[in-house]
Design goal:
Structural class: alpha/beta
Low-confidence stretches: 1-9
Strand content: 15-25%
Order of helices and strands: EHEHHEHEEHEHEHEHHEHHHHHH
Distance between the termini: 44 Å
Helix content: 40-55%
Number of helices: 15
Radius of gyration: 20 Å
Mean pLDDT: 90
Number of strands: 9
Largest sheet: 9 strands, mixed
Length: about 325
Amino acid sequence: MLAGRKGKLRMKIDVIIPVYKPEKRFLELISRLEKQTLKPNRIIIMNTEEKYFEALLYGTDFAREHPNAEVHHLSKWEFNHGGTRNDGAARSTGDIFVCMTQDALPADNRLLEELTAALSAEEDIAVSYARQLPEKDSGEIEKYTRQFNYPEESRIKGKEDLPILGIKTFFCSNVCAAWRRDKYLELGGFVKRTIFNEDMIYAGTIVKKGGKIAYCADAQVVHSHNYSALEQFHRNFDLAVSQTMHPEIFGGIRSESEGIRLVKKSLSYCIRIGKPWLMIQVVTQSAGKLLGYKLGQRYERLPEKVILACTMNRKFWEKEENL
């Protein structure tokens, strides 16, 4: 149980990982989790499509080699960003459960210790999330974006930050985030069905109910993507859809000023490092983000064919109740 607010926090921790078509990097993730200074009690793997998981493990004895890992298979129709994590949380018996993605690697063996320690800082802190470091092969713009979104300084965010941070107050990522189970149960957990962004939707609920979010810069995972402008378009379309579907959280909250600030700083960064030609990449990617976001905000007015062309999650829309 959560104890010793003034001393070291004693707790039982489970890790929940939704998985789809895993590669060898996933096995490295499991190995690094098992080497943590604060070891997880259980690693709960929510795998979509059993055949892909079995293909990765062919010729191995995964169950024997990783006795604290348990695998639960589901079909692609059963998967949902919020609902699947809720299913994992329901299987957890930990005081805290940590959500991760299959492509995030702990940067060191202190990730879980640093991440969960933040939850003892204040009674009102319901979630803490890790700093994401870029891959070695990341492009310059992606490296700068990671630095912008995940700075070196830790921070605790609450309702009082909304006038300054706007929607960034709710920013929290299930790429690697630790959730207090008692608060999770109290507030109802992740929205059961969402196209994307289940972490920020729930984090927004926490803040609006008077709770706090901790960003832990000393808890670090290696995770980044070299998205093209088109991929940014699809991603931001779904992001805007998720926010528009939840006006009780995002309605009336400033959402675009932080994006404008990132564009300006990224352009300045290109000049500062002596690579002005990268400004073209910043402009094209930013245009993709903005166009996708604006269309996503207006998804209710769009024909079904346009929605399916814009989204990166077609399965979500193929359920009749969402069209």
